[in-house]
Amino acid sequence: MAPNDSAETTGKATGTVVGRRKAARYIVPVAVAGVAAATIGLVPALADSGDPELPKISAQELIEKIAASDEQQLSGTLKISTDLGIPSLGGLAGSFAPGGAGTDGGGSAAPEDKLMELASGTHTLRVAADGPDKQRLSILGNAAEYSLIHNKGEVWAYDSKSGEAYHAAADAEQQKQQKKEHRAPAGVPTTPKEFAEQALAAAGDTTSVTVDGTSRVAGRDAYQLLIKPKQAGSTVASVRVAVDAANGVPLKFTLSANGGGKAVVDAGFTKVDFSRPDASSFSFTPPKGAKVTEADDLKDAAEQQGGEGKAPEGLAELGGLEGLEGLGGSQGLNVIGEGWTSIAQIKTPGGSGLPTGGSQGSGDIPAEAQGFLDALGDKVTGKFGSGTVFKTRLVNALLTDDGTVYVGAVTKDALVQAANGAK
Predict the structure, then answer these.
(1) What is the mean pLDDT of residues 326-348?
(2) Beta-carbon neighbour count of residue 53 at 10 Å?
(3) Do both 62 and 115 map to the same domain?
(4) Based on the domain organization, do 94 and 152 belong to the same domain?
(5) 208 and 113 assigned to the same domain
(6) Is residue 206 within 8 Å of 339, Cβ to Cβ?
(7) Which of 23, 127, 267, 282 is most buried, by the most CB atoms less than 10 A from its CB?
(8) In this predicted model, what pLDDT tens digit does every residue of 158-203 receive, in sequence order?
(9) Is 93 in contact with 144 (CB distance < 8 Å)?
(10) Helix, strand, or coil (residue 326)
(11) Beta strands in 178-249 (DSSP E)
């Protein structure tokens, strides 16, 4: 029978993970992915039947095994499947991203233009890594492929469907910082290891971490690390991480919602090889006739439109896996609570909520449009006044009629309670 360890970690164990950042050298660059989601996930890996018999290990020992993992070379195939309970947005992100399809900057091959495509549905990815300086990620489509290549501070992206390419080069200071953090430019979580590190960063007094059996993932023996919030009010039911028994590399990541149903995020390898990939995997030359867009050109276009040209943050961070405490110093933003039930309180400019309508056009918008807005969320009232809660299976947001936003990986009741307490 597979081992079962009921010991819980403490904040000290968490410090081990956060403090020993060399484990992050495994990370594959994912400028292509932009948002958390902890919301991007991978379909369960093809697993052998039956759980392997492995030596017993404690939760703390398994966490330390992840932190000590120093695998810097790998190649493999992943499947990404995300179910936030919202319609697929496809490539719409590019219409709103700096330099995207909706701007004069153009550039459908820009990594941020692919962000929302990975935020819903199922996707197959192929990855390769050779230390902190060389990584490749490819999204496989129907008779098309999108590839992102990072090689010693230089980033290329190519979309075979559109025939467009994107190019960026980090300056010396940026390369130095990226090497220190063991991340590629604009890196965000896409592999099970990256997701696991985000989840473990939240472990502490608000979190239970145990070893819950074993499994086989992509043909390899693995321990199952189970992470569960102790706090009531979180939309996260649990996070399960399959950890390679031999080298400590997370092979699969599954985030389940309190509402039940299929996983919100399910991340796992279907194939994985820890030998050094061929050097040609990290070389790229734009095909003849490809339209090449430079990152600096997109940044200039974004600044002219009033933006900052900054790449979107990771979904996992937006999903609340790291908590929101670090945002407390931002202008107009306050963080309520801690751990898994952290809620960001944001004062919107102008202090107004959703527009209102009237039957004879007496409101801000037509009555038909008002009905559509009302259908998107749930009307709520409390000591704070009234507002609308917009929900996904992971992240919920309350927009009050006075223009204050409360957002977090928490339930509707928790948002209302936070708004009441803020008054």
Answers:
(1) 76
(2) 10
(3) yes
(4) yes
(5) yes
(6) yes
(7) 267
(8) 999 999 999 998 665 555 555 555 444 444 466 777 777 777 776 6
(9) no
(10) helix
(11) 207-217, 220-229, 236-244
